[in-house]
Amino acid sequence: MKVWITKYALTDGIVEKECQDCGDGMVKEIENPFPIYYHGEGKDWHRTKESAIQKAEEMRKKKIESLKKKIKKLEEMKFE
Question: SS3 of 54, please?
Answer without folding.
Answer: helix
